[in-house]
Amino acid sequence: xxxxxxxxxxxxxxxxxxxxxxxxxxHVKIRRYSNPEEKVQLNTFLSLIYDYRYxxxxxxxxxxxxxxxxxxxADVVVFKxxxxxxxYIV
Length: 90
Fold this sequence. Notes:
The protein is an alpha+beta fold.
């Protein structure tokens, strides 16, 4: 079974019927699935959950992170804590 099918089955993601948008759960981040980069991000998200066994509550996509005095959007962030305050992998 593919990672995407597992993710849908286990409710870590929702892919709309027309495959235009994908919703990442449990953080409810909605992204445009038709973007080729999104497919890479999705695969990374699901691989971190299934292959590396990080808790899905601690994995966020398109997350704003502070770098010095400015903020940027990271593709995927894994946090050390359940409150998602302490980044572990960016």
